[in-house]
Amino acid sequence: MSWFILALLSPLFWGIENFLYKVSARLHHDQNRIGAIFTGTALVCITVLMLLSRQAWTDIPFFILISILNATTFLLEILTRARALKKVDVNYFFPVTKVGSLVLLVIFAILIQHKSLTALQAGGLGIACLAIYLLSLPPSATGEKKRSRTGEMYTFFYLLSMTANLITAALAMERLGIWQFMFGIYTLTMLLTLLTPRIFPALVPASSDRVSTTSMYRTGMAIGLFNFLGAWLYLEAIRLGNIAIVGGLNNFSLLVTVACTIFLPSYREPFGPRRVLGVALAFLSIFLLR
Question: Rounded to an integer, what is the distance from CA 193 to the centroid of its chain?
């Protein structure tokens, strides 16, 4: 299977995962427990496939270093996003971070990995930026807009953390086997998830005592399965292809999440002209990036 097809399939699974997070939040699940369940589910899948593949572990010092860097940047993503969204509006935060991350990935691909883009692919990435911007805006502007220098600072650090997380994954795929790297980062993520309530108790919201444990475990395991599939396909895509293009396509997980809210009445959101235009531009950019 070509890396472009893998890059198209990855946001499909991550988009469904994002929608399931929305479902989980509406059901008032304990998000820290959801995180532990989903990372545990993904780790079981990874361990089984790693044992079946009998993939040899290589370059252990680099593996330890890159796994720690990747897990740390992931933790920084969580911390800076939580703080940024308290200070700035979502219609500032998401467009800036998603488009900004794509621009940084393009720079990394060209300057560090010496990847090249055709004129059509460059145009496709430009259209993708506009599509991502339109799709990441909320359906309607409500309430007073928030904006502060502190919030902008946290938004900037979130942007750097998210991009660094993607870049460390790309560097890992140049030297490590996929199961080795995924086992390392998911194990560390599981530990960080379990330690977060003790280290950063203010970041863990209170959960309802009346929430169904069965419902929470089902949702968490489903999130873990879709997260694992999305991560697997994404890592395979960046191992084989151009991270700039893969990163651009990966942002279209927004499109899948929006589609889930349209077709499920109880979670439906307004779908105005901006999102219609965003969807049209997304498909045009995919055609140009292929």
Answer: 16
